[in-house]
């Protein structure tokens, strides 16, 4: 059920390769090949530590040779990540043609199988099994989400939509001993944005379908749609911004712990004029002397003093010169292309955009020696299955965390960020920066 979301198709082809490492030459076979990585069969009595770089030659294609970093190993395989290059479509087609015919047949049909399996699962979960699932899970909270038409096509067809409830159960969530469900409207994002009546129908139906849940966390832009519809966000609805703010605050704190950035006294928030961005800028003055809130919506420069630091609100690209740390909150990740020429080599971008920075843009930034890492929240006892598109099933969306904290500590104030931050940290929620999810 996860395969459809991978940015690159994993072909599953098995072709012979020769590894060169520490003056040794080792022959083995691939188990999987994608544009950005390899899975190899691990030869007996060979152990290569994660982090090592090895050269890979394809025995039947002498013109294809790559260097790759070992990401993980176990008793049977070695996982490799291509850091400096990617296989081109031509390379993948050549390797695909070298594989046995039965493997080519499986590869061609794999995504079709994934998509159909997911659709069958969604249909069953929202027709014959819906009552049993709700009774078994006994959800204490809901994660109310929406999607675009491309994402919806992976879950259901128009024929299925006519036969399922309007609000569909799409996933199971566990946080310690608490259980919840991810529920999506059949209305698409653009419909909810344009028609407040559809927003009201979505939420009213949600509370009728699940009258006993204690919290309903609103994803992404849904709080904006709700407020636009004139609906007050009160219990059980949870706006979610405190969780997102905590995630970014914790990540910004950990950026300072890296040796190459520990002397930085300023940080840039791209998209600093938004509902979340404005609050984030205020929060970060507790960590940095100067926070640059960069947004095209600012007409002129304005400097605001807080109890702990200053916030510069600006739309001038000149203020990006020489800055090394960035939080990206733009409406979509690839908006950073407008700014990259003004960013210094060695800069780090923490990406919290949806959709996130694309592979093409990542490669362009890498050529300028600008690093990008994805912002996530984690907890040892969290699990979401199946995972959301472009998301790990162990990573927690920031907009969900506020509901999870309030279920444990109902007394945490709605607008009291310092108190919420303290409780979230006490309960074990932690912001992290991870490699972009290329797969």
How is this structure best described in words?
The longest helix is centred in the first third of the chain and has 25 residues. Helix content is 31%, strand content 27%. Strand 12, helix 10 and strand 13 form a beta-alpha-beta unit. The chain has 439 residues and is an alpha/beta fold. The strands form three sheets. Strands 12, 13, 14, 15, 16, 17, 18, 20 and 21 form a nine-stranded mixed β-sheet that branches. A six-stranded antiparallel β-barrel has the order 1-2-3-6-5-4. It has 13 helices and 21 strands. Helix 9 packs across helix 10, helix 9 crosses helix 12 and helix 9 crosses helix 13.
Could you give the count of β-strands?
21
Helical content stands at 25-40%
What's the alpha carbon Rg, rounded to whole Å? 24 Å
Q: What would CATH call the architecture of the largest domain? A: 3-Layer(aba) Sandwich
CATH topology of the largest domain: Rossmann fold
Q: Stretches where pLDDT falls below 50 for ≥5 residues?
A: 1-9
Share of residues in strands: 25-35%
Count up the domains.
3
Main sheet summary? 9 strands, mixed
Give the overall pLDDT as a whole number: 88
Distance between the termini: 14 Å
CATH homology-level superfamily of the largest domain: NAD(P)-binding Rossmann-like Domain
User: Treating each run of at least 4 consecutive H or I residues as one helix, how many helices?
Assistant: 13
In CATH's first tier, which class of the largest domain applies?
Answer: Alpha Beta
Structural class: alpha/beta
Give the overall form: globular
